[in-house]
Amino acid sequence: MPEATQSIVRAQLEEERDHLQTKLSEMGYGENGALAFDDGFADSSQVTAERSELDAVAASLTETLRETVDALAKMDAGTYGQCESCASDIGVARLEAMPSARFCMACASKTR
User: Does residue 46 sit within a domain?
Assistant: First the structure.
């Protein structure tokens, strides 16, 4: 990947990381990996369902954050853009579309 393109992708990943961290913080996601609810948070079935939904959203955001942080770490290590399965290069177009991609198209299609 050309250095200029990698700089743009790095900026996108850093922006995404910051956005995800802010979103999780706004949701009350704590450092212990759980959502914080105040004592006034009722325990009715409706609230329990909403709480489960928030937990699912937080889990998804956390996974995306992990993938984003991992991609930034790969950039620092010089392994960004290398498929985790076959070690071949991940196409530039795929990385531009999905900067945290872990697998080349061939390996990604095998896991579906």
Answer: yes
Given a contact cutoff of 8 angstroms between Cβ atoms, the answer to whether 5 and 96 are in contact is yes
Question: Nearest Cα to 94, choosing from 78, 83, 85?
Answer: 83
80, 71 in Cβ contact below 8 A? yes
| Residue closest to 16 by CA, chosen among 71, 80, 77, 74 | 71
CA-atom Rg of the chain in angstroms? 18
**Assigned domain for 98 exists:** no
**What is the token pair recorded at 50?**
């909403």
Number of structural domains in the chain: 1
The reply to whether the predicted model has a pTM over 0.85 is no
Domain contains 93: no
Considering the domain boundaries, does residue 91 fall inside one? no
Check residue 52 and give its pLDDT: 81
